[in-house]
Amino acid sequence: KVKKNVSRKVKFKVKKKVSRKVKPKVKKKVSRKVKSKVKNDIEKELIFKTRPEWIKAALVNKTKYQKKYSDSIKNNNEFWKKEGKRITWIKPYKKIKNVKYSKTDVKIKWYEDGTLNASSNCIDRHLKDKKDKTAIIWVGDNPNDTRKISYKQLHSEVSKAANGLKKLGIKKGDRVTIYLTMIPELAITMLACARIGAIHSIIFGGFLAESISGRINDCESEYIITSDEGVRGGKIIPLKINVDEALINCPNVKKCIVIKRTGNYINWVDGRDVWYEDLIKDVSNKCEPEEMNAEDPLFILYTSGSTGKPKGVLHTTGGYMVYASMTHQYIFNYKPRDVYWCTADIGWVTGHSYIIYGPLANGATTIMHEGVPNYPDWSRWWQIIDKYKVNIFYTAPTAIRSIMREGDKYVKKTSRKSLKLLGTVGEPINPEAWLWYYKTVGNSKCPIVDTWWQTETGGILISPQTGAINLKPGSATKPFYGIKPSIIDKNGKEIKGAGEGRLCISQSWPGQMRTVYGDHQRFIDTYFSQFDGKYFTGDGAKRDKDGYYWITGRVDDVIIVSGHNLGTAEIESAFVAHEKVAESAVVGYPHDIKGNGLYCYVTLNVGEEPNGELERDLKLWVRKQIGPLATPDIIHFSPGLPKTRSGKIMRRILRKIAANEHDQLGDTSTLADPSVVQSLVDNRKNI
Ligand code: WTA
């Protein structure tokens, strides 16, 4: 014991001594390293100019974009009058826009006298010339499971499902909850709802009972569609068990439709539960699409806010379809023969707009992957790209970082030569990940579109168009047609030219959400009460001298240090730019002198070990990149970070742990892996 004690003491002393001695050396070393890296990659602002071959392949060039953009703002009504025609209407619209944005009253209507059906826009209108074209390539979790669904087959399957739903008494305006993993029936049943005018409310298959019942009750949905089980990454997800548990608290649910995915035994409630295969057995494969008004609801999708329970974001039919289809075509530079893959889950808005409604409205071939990027191994996504010759690939920065962390070898095994364009969405992408995505995944030949948008916006609002806009890694670049961003300073004044503040949108666009389902006042309070006449996004943004937008993160994630704003995204990006760091999350904690200190959670790359020297290096590294103000106060090495199932880091929890308030963590039910939290609490650093 004595020996041990002594040795620890000695070690400490030695360490201290050595570290003081070594310090200047280390500093020098790091600073040289920092210098060259920063110079190469970050400090010198990177611009990737549109290349001649990108311009050649693009739908619009710079002149066309600028003209069309300025036209879309100046002659907004005329612009959308023309663009609305890309959709097939049953009764053409005469009215274009009827919008009122104020602090007390908000009304948003587009094409309000037109009628259409979303499912027939995604299917029927392609039957004339594309009936045998593949609409959906379904790629199973198991690489041997795969299925191609042509537009004609999709028509038949969706019609049967629609007739099945009708047989149960489901009609226009009814809310139908869908809780599934990524199986073809998810696409089929959502389009079947759209076909008969029922409003779908899709719940991501990773949510559990409490979230399911909350969402069902909020929109008073009487029907739910699920499957016996789901399969993801070689694991079984007990969907029906979760639904059974949820429905204990949902007395209004009349029917639970069950799709067979694994065929394993499940509990059965007679009278309530119905097999999907029985429902569609004897029904016709033709179903006349319901004529819907442009402003009839298409779907509800729940999204969490900074306060309160999740909000039911309501999207309507006409404007949403116009906007989803248009953005999909222009931003992804979509051409009729392209194979397009968005890796999102349909349970999120990205899947709604950019796996189903946008691509199918454009007659595209869209991939639906049931699995995850690392099953059977980390090469999976790149193998799928090679196998199906994917041309357009759209994913999230968090996925890119986790794949990047495993090293290049899994990517390099594949060719990915079919790729023409890459996209990202969901959070700011740090330049380090951008460059890796560009060089390693895209073989330095594909432009990247960093697309900024929200569940509420229905489609992409800020993003490059690759033939028209030079790329700057980390910037979502410029607004899409008809989008007028404003940046508002601390005093509520609009900033003209370069500057930083709160990001608002000053005029409506067709894909905008119309209300919070059942609570219009909450809609007004959340998005319109802050700045008169503007939609407030909840994000912060910078506009640079070239008019490029840089999203700095949620406004509530800003940390004020010594009276200065620091974006968590900016600091995290600096961390991740270090060669040993895989991921990081930064939160503020109360600091006697500075107001807030920076508590930084850091996950290292596989094979790296945390130690005091690395901690010191990282502090210097971040200080060097952003400035002394951003010097991290605390670095907490952690093997994982608490994330929602959609991959968003839950900073609320990290803030509580940093502040030593882990008895007040609040609702942790949406965490992907709750065990991460306990390990963080156990290893909390004292402040
Ligand atoms: C963030 C996802 C920076 C942003 C479509 C927004 C982004 C929130 C980007 C919406 C991006 C999304 N760069 N931040 N390219 N894309 N975000 O509702 O904070 O799940 O407000 O919609 O994600 O997330 P949501």
UniProtKB/TrEMBL annotation:
The family this protein is said to belong to: Belongs to the ATP-dependent AMP-binding enzyme family.
Cofactor section: Mg(2+)
Name recorded for this polypeptide: Acetyl-coenzyme A synthetase
Catalytic reactions of this protein: acetate + ATP + CoA = acetyl-CoA + AMP + diphosphate
Record Gene3D superfamilies: 3.30.300.30, N-terminal domain of ligase-like
Annotated AMP-dependent synthetase/ligase domain residues: 124-508
Binding residues annotated for CoA, in chain numbering: R232, G233, G234, K235, T350, N374, S562, R623
Keyword Protein biosynthesis: no
EC number: 6.2.1.1
This protein's record includes keyword NADP: no
PTM statement from Swiss-Prot or TrEMBL: Acetylated. Deacetylation by the SIR2-homolog deacetylase activates the enzyme.
Transmembrane feature ranges: 176-209
Domain Acetyl-coenzyme A synthetase N-terminal intervals: 65-122
Organism this protein belongs to: Pelagibacter ubique
Superkingdom of this protein's organism: Bacteria
Domain AMP-binding enzyme C-terminal: 570-648
N6-acetyllysine modifications at: K648
UniProt keyword annotations, A-Z: Acetylation, ATP-binding, Ligase, Magnesium, Membrane, Metal-binding, Nucleotide-binding, Transmembrane, Transmembrane helix
Function noted in UniProt: Catalyzes the conversion of acetate into acetyl-CoA (AcCoA), an essential intermediate at the junction of anabolic and catabolic pathways. AcsA undergoes a two-step reaction. In the first half reaction, AcsA combines acetate with ATP to form acetyl-adenylate (AcAMP) intermediate. In the second half reaction, it can then transfer the acetyl group from AcAMP to the sulfhydryl group of CoA, forming the product AcCoA.
